[in-house]
């Protein structure tokens, strides 16, 4: 498609990919003035009759998560996005969304990159997004490292309206197969629960062959049992295969979901089925599969 620029900036939409009806989501790849690329996705929220937006925090990511297409891209990490670039991309899509369906209900920093690793720019952009009425709420998805979570618990810290923390394993070794830099679940869960006393927190657990064995059902139920009623939901997410990933979709999804729903008393367990596997729906997948650009020039100090 023809490139279009976001208002007042050199951020441009480089490529767009609509999903099949009735989903109505549209994934966009943005390009910055130094040719860094990132994604933003318009998501149709049918129950609200409006759109939300999945937004990136970085051009690429350093975390190396094995379920994410960004890890296997030719340029997995380039740099942090600055607040102005983030806000400009949101403003550009917000104008499109308003023309199609009305106001943007929320922006979720769940796209390419780790929000906690670019927190100063994310919080500045989030305040601007809400302050200017570009969206009604801001949400954040993160692997939730200990140091960052502790910073959220400090007095007067800015907090998003809702958070989703990525668990993906019942112990350190298992979790690090998916998130190589992950903390021990037993040490971060008390901190996550403290944040959940301040804001609604969803725990996300991607379902793959690696972490859905019968023994994993018991281990996860034992880990989470003491936190009944503290978190909003346990979100069990089907794995969307990406090129290069050593992980595979679980052959035991139904049994695993049934076991957790039965054994986790006091928890709300939900299943998120990965939509659009045929339309590069995984985070970073469109950027990784369709772009072949020169390596961007990194900006000093970012």
UniProtKB/TrEMBL annotation:
- CC per GO annotation: cytoplasm
Keyword 4Fe-4S found: yes
Recorded GO molecular functions are: 4 iron, 4 sulfur cluster binding; metal ion binding; RNA methyltransferase activity
Q: What are the names of the required cofactors? A: [4Fe-4S] cluster
Biological process annotations from GO: rRNA base methylation; tRNA methylation
Boundaries of every Radical SAM core domain copy = 47-278
Q: Which PROSITE patterns does the UniProt entry name for this protein? A: RADICAL_SAM
Localization of this protein: Cytoplasm
Has the keyword S-adenosyl-L-methionine been applied to this entry?
yes
Which keywords accompany this UniProt record? 4Fe-4S, Cytoplasm, Iron, Iron-sulfur, Metal-binding, Methyltransferase, S-adenosyl-L-methionine, Transferase
Q: Which PANTHER family match?
A: 23S RRNA METHYLTRANSFERASE, RADICAL SAM CORE DOMAIN-CONTAINING PROTEIN
Name of this protein: Radical SAM core domain-containing protein
């Amino acid at each position: 498609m023809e490139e279009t620029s976001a208002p007042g900036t050199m951020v441009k939409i480089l490529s767009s990919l609509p999903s099949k009806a009735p989903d109505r989501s549209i994934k966009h790849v943005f390009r910055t003035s130094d040719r860094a690329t990132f994604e933003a996705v318009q998501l149709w929220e049918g129950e609200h009759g409006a759109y939300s937006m999945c937004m990136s925090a970085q051009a690429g990511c350093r975390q190396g998560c094995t379920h994410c297409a960004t890890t296997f891209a030719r340029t997995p990490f380039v740099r942090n996005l600055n607040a102005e670039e983030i806000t400009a991309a949101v403003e550009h899509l917000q104008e499109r969304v308003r023309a199609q369906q009305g106001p943007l209900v929320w922006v979720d920093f769940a796209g390419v990159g780790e929000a906690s690793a670019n927190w100063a720019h994310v919080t500045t952009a989030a305040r601007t997004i809400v302050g200017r009425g570009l969206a009604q709420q801001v949400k954040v998805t993160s692997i939730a490292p200990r140091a960052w979570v502790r910073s959220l618990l400090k007095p007067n810290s800015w907090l998003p309206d809702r958070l989703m923390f990525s668990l993906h394993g019942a112990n350190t070794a298992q979790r690090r197969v998916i998130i190589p830099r992950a903390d021990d679940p037993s040490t971060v869960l008390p901190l996550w629960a403290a944040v959940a006393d301040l804001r609604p927190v969803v725990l996300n657990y991607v379902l793959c062959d690696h972490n859905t064995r019968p023994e994993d059902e018991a281990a996860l139920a034992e880990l989470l049992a003491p936190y009944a009623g503290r978190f909003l939901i346990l979100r069990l997410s089907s794995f969307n295969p990406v090129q290069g990933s050593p992980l595979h979709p679980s052959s035991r999804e139904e049994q695993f979901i049934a076991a957790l729903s039965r054994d986790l008393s006091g928890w709300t367990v939900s299943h998120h089925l990965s939509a659009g596997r045929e339309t590069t729906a995984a985070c970073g997948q469109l950027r990784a599969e369709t772009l072949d650009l020169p390596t961007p020039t990194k900006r000093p100090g970012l």
